[in-house]
User: Fold this.
Amino acid sequence: MAGTRGDPVIRVAGLGKSYRTAAGLFPALKGVDLSIQPGEFVAIMGPSGSGKSTFMNLLGCLDTPSSGDYFLTGRNVAHLRNDELAILRNRTIGFVFQGFNLLPRMNLQDNVALPLVYAGSDRETRRARARTLLDRVGLAAYADSLPSRISGGQQQRVAIARALVNQPSLILADEPTGNLDSHTSEEIMALFGELNREGITIVLVTHENDIAAHAGRQVRFLDGRIVSDMATPAHGAAA
Amino acid sequence: MIGPMLGEAWRAMGANRMRTALTMLGMVIGVGAVVLMMAIGQGAQYAVAQTISSMGSNLFIVISGSSTISGARSGSGGGPTLNVADAEAIAELEGVTHVAPTHQGTRQLVYGANNWNATVIGTTPAYLDARAWSIVSGHAFGDSDVRSATRVALIGKTAAEALFGSEDPVGKTIRIQQSPFVIVGLLGAKGQNLDGRDQDDTIIVPLTTAQRKVFGTPFPGSVRVIMVQAAAPELMPQVEKSIVALLRQRHRIREEMENDFFIRNLAAAADSAAETTRVMSLLLGAIASVSLLVGGIGIMNIMLVSVTERTREIGIRMAIGARQKEILTQFLLEAIIISVAGCLIGLVLGVGGALLINALTDMVIVISGTSVVVAFGVAAGVGIFFGFYPARKAAKLDPIEALRYQ
Ligand SMILES: Nc1ncnc2c1ncn2[C@@H]1O[C@H](COP(=O)(O)OP(=O)(O)OP(=O)(O)O)[C@@H](O)[C@H]1O
Ligand SMILES: [Mg+2]
Assistant:
């Protein structure tokens, strides 16, 4: 992270999130401060229940914080309206899930093109962009197949293609390799590495050290707080 | 935006064909029932309107005797209290266009070996004018025929067919009560009257001839019924009052005595018949609308199930940038497509059913453009109304909750 100056892509200050439960308010995130510069590749780690997903959902504008501020590309989005959040999710952020989350009844091309529908792109643009991205993740041959016809690793590549289709500046991935075997996980991480080298900021949650080793920076959560934030040893030197 | 959404609605409906079809069936039945019931109701209204116009407009009938239940209390020893002179006096009143004293009864008509029972009406030429009754062949009889009691007759379509088959009745001689009558004219068809009696099963003869040769009344010149036509509907109350005053004076009825006649306003009877069928038609429509409502509730039910089933899909769509209004539009579109498609099929079946009834029975069926447009508009409205709540429910989902839904 040394050397990258300018407006951070992500800056959170005192970010907190409490869930309403039967037993009262449960604080899952207790005041998190973090900045991520453009072009960084950050791995979020920590034990189960430490608040990683809660944090990612806030970064992804899928949820709104209970307290604190979140500046996305310099703009405070902590209290935006639903529709404005939807536009950010559509244009600025690409979200990749552990469970792929492709729509089962749509072929791969339509799945990849779906964010463009909500962006209001015309039919030809949608088709061309979806083709380009499927080609990019090596699945152009399956454009007309349904998600159920391809493997988990391939589905995750399609999900990444979908996340990229609107040219976001930020990719958020919550355990993207959680459902994949180690070989396929390596392929997916290689793809993320490639995207990061092209300048896309990537924030990714993982439990595994060798996955985290692909990132340039590792942030550890424990009990709703950040407990460590450091450059990946070998990587840090290279950057 | 709408383009790809239509495609998606199609895909979603295709994924559950049976369910979509059954949901649509609710609308099909609802719209079909509305169209059919409206066709039957409007048909009945049309039939009644036809009957009313066949009756003649702005008519009164003045009937001899008192209107009380013990109606036999007629003034002078059982004979009718009205007479031809009364009719002539009424004709002089302001606002009265035609007056026809009549004497009618059922008699047997004989032509060669054929015989047939029909209503014989003895009256004056004014009767045809009052009832706007045309002559389709031959000619009417005139006042001179009444004065000289000639044995001429006008015959209605039903009676003519019964006696003469397809032959032209004009010029033929028939017998009524042994007296020969020459048919001089064939009356135009009028169909049934409000009581359902065939108005064409009739023969019309001069009043004087009828009284002497057909009915053999002991009180010639007296009649039980005088038909009176007012010049305009708004003149009817005034004309009615004048008739009452005139007849009381002519019959020398003292202040405290009751009338020895009563007046029936046929226009009022017609209005009430029209009102009855209008109400019946509304009732039919209302009953059919209930099935449309049930169809709408069916759509709402299925859309709610669909929203629940597709919660995760909705979460995914929101995560990649769908706005609330886009989710709303998507589900609303599905509901509208189902209801409009159901409506189209229902229209076809309803109109088909109406045509079938028309072909198989003698019921009058009227399919109006308005009823089709109304049924269509209501169906689209039902789709929007009942689709809105589920669609809004989908749009208001929390993206995180929806994504977590299994
Ligand atoms: N919707 C919710 N309602 C109530 N509590 C919740 C909710 N979501 C998360 N939590 C709680 O908040 C805490 C943090 O959850 P979170 O999912 O962020 O953990 P995590 O770090 O992603 O864990 P994992 O590694 O298992 O995915 C947990 O204790 C969890 O039980
Ligand atoms: Mg998690």
Remarks:
- The first strand of chain A starts at residue 10 and ends at 21.
- The beta strands of chain A are 10-21, 24-36, 41-45, 67-72, 75-76, 93-96, 170-174, 201-205, 217-222, 225-231.
